Amino acid sequence: MTDSPAATDFASDLALALRLADAADAQSLPRFDASDLRISTKADRTHVTDADLATERAIRALLAQERPDDGILGEEFGTEGGAHRQWIIDPIDGTANFMRGVPLWGTMISLAIDGVPHVGVVSMPALGRRWWASTGAGAWTASDAGPRRVETSAVSSLDDAAVSFQSVTQWADAGHLPALLRVAERVWRDRAYGDVYSYMLLAEGRLEMVAEFDVKEYDIAAAVPIVREAGGTFTSFDGIETIAARSTLASNGLLHDAFLELTRATSNP
Q1: pTM, whole model, 2 decimals?
Q2: What is the CATH number of the domain that holds 112?
Q3: Structure-derived torsion over alpha carbons of residues 181, 100, 213, 193, reported in degrees to the nearest 10
Q4: pLDDT digits (tens, 9 = 90+) for 125-139
Q5: Has residue 79 been placed in a domain?
Q6: Structural domain of residue 248, as residue ranges?
């Protein structure tokens, strides 16, 4: 593995993904906590703001110029083109936070090849933070001194582990509340940081596990290469390496099997 963030077969795609994130930030950040933010409700009863729509439009417009032959899957405007090389976009992950003025939201941009994410960029402009990765080139974040490589933690005991989950209701609705309670009783610390920020904390070695349910591909695709290139493991709740299972269990790698065993032991049959 190289020490350069750009020395990879996906160098040009990663460079484009970072430009896409710049375009996204230019749309989303000026609308954050805006008094005239326009909010509507989608058919699935989730919220969408004018910033979500403008951000995805900006990303799609740049992709149309730079990668017209690639497919796109976005939260707000669906699927366009094929799925061999597919850009997977969540324009604002954490819309509920965004519309309430909570800065824990971000744009997620990924390039997947035949369903496997190989490039990931997560930009959280309200925090002034960005993370990125591509297969074989490590996981990185921006710092005052320039790009800094991030790595998952070396914690190897559940007793010392910190975990994050989306919400108690989410685990209960999925039939896994007993598993969540068992995890909380077993580990050192549990918190519901929620959304994409949890995965970035995991990649930086500040958490040892993140798990959630009812997630779409665009909710997680960008986080996958970042977590994996940081040294972690990213699977479904059942331990399968896929982004299509509607669940996740991501870890620092060292504790992945232990978390799978712990959650399976307490899940409903």
Answers
A1: 0.94
A2: 3.30.540.10
A3: -50
A4: 999 999 999 999 999
A5: yes
A6: 158-266
